Amino acid sequence: MAEPQARTLFSDELLAVGQALNPIQPQEVVTDIILRPAISSLGAVAGAVLLINAQGDRLELITRQGYEQDAKTIWQDGPLDRHIPAIDAIERQQPLFFEDSNHLKQLYPQLEEETGALSPVATAVLPILLGGQALGVLVLDFREPHRFTPAEQQFLITLAFQCAAALDRSLQHARLIQQKQSQVDILESISDAFYAVDAQWRFTYVNRHAEKFWGRSREDLIGKVCWEEFPQAVGSESYQAHLNAAQGRQVVRLEARSPVIGSWITMTINPTSQGLSVYFADITERKAVDARASEFARALERRVMERTQELQDLNAELRAYAIGISRDLTEPLRRVNAFVGLLENRLKGQVDERLGRMFTQVREEARRVGERMDELRKLAVLERRELRAEPLELIQLVVQVRSDLEPLLKGRKVTWDLGTLPRVTADALLLRQVFAELLAVALDATQHTSQARIEVDGEVRDGWVRVWVRHNGVALTPEQAQRIFDVFQVSPAVFGADERIGLANVRRIVARHGGQVWATGDGETGACLVMSLPERRGESATG
Predict the structure, then answer these.
(1) Long-range Cβ pairs for the range 12-20 (8 Å, 24+)
(2) Which of 123, 213, 263, 372 has the fewest CB atoms within 10 Å distance of its CB?
(3) DSSP secondary structure code for residue 95 in this structure
């Protein structure tokens, strides 16, 4: 996935994660919220979160997704003295990225034997850090080799940071809840801040914690009207809460600043047969924690907005650069063609077979440059076009595109294997361009294959429409498959013809639809180009 486009998608994911984590959540919910976008955004097959236990001597598996039930993985509970990727990431406080299984096995040759599980093909291990202290690790597993782009790495690091902050909030909140429960248990024996008043608002009881909170002795308060002893409370939020509890004969709970000393308190007012019983606790510390968490969320949102703006500026510069190159080369290319024509006219009757081939080659190279310029222009202006999503029958679209490519089939025999393709909601014009490029790649790659076969098929699984184009032509290695959709990154020999900038257009079109593209190959027999789009079930895609 291209880094600029990926960042745009990841920024949306980070905003969604930040919103989901804004309420304080248990650690199992926090890790689940973090893990889902990490897996879906990078195309991972599974993932897990392991946290260091309270004793600080073991890793404990908290959440895992994508693995079969009861299936063994290399990510297991265990002590912290093992030589495994998770422990190394924690000790180094650095993320580890393994783009293929050979890299992982080379560094950890005993891993499969120790865990009794097979290593993933590619994996990412992110330490979850808070203030320099490791809380655990976030791991992702991939079924295919995976090149982790800088944008993907930064996305995962940010997710790990969000996870750490949310876990810290959860831990502090859990501590406060536990403290509150302890206070409730104590209050049952009237040992916390507690007082009672009768129907005339006279104090009938004040415990020692209330004495300390107010700085007043119980002897000085018992039998006296509370509003006369604390006139600053009259008209306050807590004053109104007392009235509501007395008049409505119902329990009233509130959090407010104490009108007596100004601290934040949580208060519960219970009606009784004699009047009201009230207990309260100071929550100033918790409010400070909430304020810090809110500030962190706002700071994170500001940072995401800044990064999004930087990305938009970079995309604008890239578009201008591509259009400028294309414009600057148009006139020189036209002059080359004109000069070749003039030269042929001048040498008419003197051009032998060898010189004729040279003229033909010059024109062919000029044509190829012209095609590359057209593809650069398409790449530059692609994002300007607003998506016009509509329900599409993919089989009809593929048949139409195949018909358009008939000129490439002259003198060739190609067996087409069209499966039962699903429906999608997408921009018809842009998706037609995608299939035109994918099928053209397959035709180019099989042009020297005696029994060429091209398969187009798809499926719907877990809310995603997946479509692939598989051919038995020029083989694609795993390394080439990782870069095939990058501009100017793959040798022309991979396609059996020229280098194809159009595949970068394919990636950007699919990304704008919220999907992904990738390729697979074993370096021996052909290749497979895959496109995955969200199943919108008739909903409109956004541009």
Answers:
(1) 13/37, 13/41, 13/155, 14/155, 14/158, 14/159, 14/162, 14/300, 14/304, 15/301, 15/304, 17/159, 17/162, 18/162, 18/297, 18/300, 18/301, 18/304
(2) 263
(3) -
270, containing H or E segment: strand 264-271
Q: Chain-centre distance of CA 283, in angstroms? A: 35
What are the backbone angles phi and psi of residue 187, rounded to the nearest 5°? -65, -25
Distance CA 425, CA 421 (A): 13
**Cα–Cα separations (whole angstroms), residue 387 to 40, 189, 316:** 23, 67, 18
Query: Which amino acid belongs to residue 112?
Result: E
114, two tokens? 């120790």
Which residues of the chain fall short of a pLDDT of 50?
Answer: 1-7, 183-184, 187-188, 490-491, 493-494, 496-498, 538-543
Is residue 124 within 8 Å of residue 95, measured between CB atoms?
yes
- Those residues with Cβ within 8 angstroms of residue 375's Cβ, 6 or more apart along the chain or in another chain: 500, 501, 502, 505
How many angstroms separate the CA atoms of 115 and 77, rounded? 10
Query: What pLDDT does 136 receive?
Result: 94
pLDDT in the model for residue 424: 92
Q: What is the CA radius of gyration of the chain?
A: 34
Strands (E), 131-243: 133-142, 194-198, 203-206
Q: Rounded to an integer, what distance in angstroms lies between the CA atom of residue 384 and that of residue 515?
A: 18
Region of 161 on the Ramachandran plot (φ > 0 left; ψ -120 to 50 alpha; else beta)? alpha
65 CB-near residues (< 8 Å, 6+ apart):
32, 35, 36, 39, 46, 47, 48
Q: Which amino acid is at 422?
A: P
pLDDT at 540: 44
Give the Å distances, CA to CA, from 102 to 105, 107, 110, 120, 522. 5, 9, 13, 10, 15
Q: 471 with 454: CB under 8 angstroms? A: yes
pLDDT at position 543:
46
DSSP structure class, residue 225 = B
Structure token digits, residue 39: 């897996």
Report pLDDT for 417. Answer: 94
Q: Which residues of 139-167 are buried (b: 16+ CB within 10 A; e: fewer)?
A: bbbbebbbbbbebbebbbbbbbbbbbbbb
- Give the burial class of 264: count Cβ atoms within 10 A of its Cβ; 0-12 exposed, 13-18 middle, 19 or more buried: middle
